[in-house]
Amino acid sequence: MTEGIEKLIVAIDTDDFDKAKELIDKLEDSVDIFKVGLEQYVATRGKTVDYLKEKGKKIFLDLKFHDIPNTMKSAVKAAVRDNVWLMTIHVSDMEGMKQCAQIAKEEAERLNIEKPLIVGVTVLTSLSNEDLQDIGCNMTTEELAIKRAKLAKEAGIDGVVCSAKEVDKIVKECGEDFVTVCPGIRPETSEVGDQKRVVTPADAIKKGAHYLVVGRPITKSEDPKKSALDIVREIENA
Ligand SMILES: O=C(O)c1cc(=O)[nH]c(=O)n1[C@@H]1O[C@H](COP(=O)(O)O)[C@@H](O)[C@H]1O
């Protein structure tokens, strides 16, 4: 497998299992990691996770848990049973994150499976500085993302989801081994849509992102396989 394929995560955002299956089948030779998010998981009750397992693919379960510590911890414990590669929580209070890190380890040991990576969402890539002001936060997206990444590291989770706009600073603060997953990736010619902090695949890699999450630029393309391969090539050239 090439280095580019190892860094690309494709977001299967559809509410239809057959469409998800069709996309996975089209992309299976050029993509190794697929993200099952809220829309697809809720609509299919997790059926796509089983399909991806049958195909031997790596699974990013993106359910972004955010709740009181006991509920977050219990949700992580249940999700570990899906035996996925990586899953998301929101960066929240220290107690909640610590309990998620701990239970993931314990449950994986009990089941004798590899512990999934637990990563915390810092500041959604659809948010701007103005959006943060509107919801009562007087920090910039970059300041808040760095602060939350440091909290996530202190709590003992494996990494964060962040925009590639701030990933270089997060790597500098939290170290090379702290996993960085960057959505809001847009090749030069792609539509931005609802994303506000976007970066090209090449620039995201140059800034130190470990993994790039790409949805619509691949899934809404007339030729998803070609679009995925173009991004893999751009990653490799960077
Ligand atoms: O956790 C995520 O994956 C996520 C965090 C974030 O800050 N921004 C973000 O876009 N995402 C997800 O990444 C994917 C991006 O999709 P596209 O905008 O279509 O490339 C979607 O599935 C989002 O749910």
Automatic annotation (TrEMBL):
UniProt gene name: pyrF
CDD domains per record: OMP_decarboxylase_like
Lineage summary: Bacteria, Bacillati, Bacillota, Clostridia, Peptostreptococcales
GO biological process annotation, one example: 'de novo' pyrimidine nucleobase biosynthetic process
Database matches in PROSITE patterns: OMPDECASE
Pathway(s) annotated for this protein in UniProt: Pyrimidine metabolism; UMP biosynthesis via de novo pathway; UMP from orotate: step 2/2
Assembly, per entry: Homodimer.
GO CC annotations on file: cytosol
Domain of life assignment: Bacteria
Protein name, UniProt field: Orotidine 5'-phosphate decarboxylase
Enzyme Commission code: 4.1.1.23
Molecular function terms, GO-annotated: orotidine-5'-phosphate decarboxylase activity
Catalytic activity: orotidine 5'-phosphate + H(+) = UMP + CO2
Function: Catalyzes the decarboxylation of orotidine 5'-monophosphate (OMP) to uridine 5'-monophosphate (UMP).
Alphabetic keyword roster: Decarboxylase, Lyase, Pyrimidine biosynthesis
Residues at the catalytic site: D62, K64, D67
Family listed: Belongs to the OMP decarboxylase family. Type 1 subfamily.
Residue ranges of every copy of the Orotidine 5'-phosphate decarboxylase domain listed in the record: 7-231
Record-listed substrate binding positions: 13, 35, 62-71, 125, 186, 195, 215-216
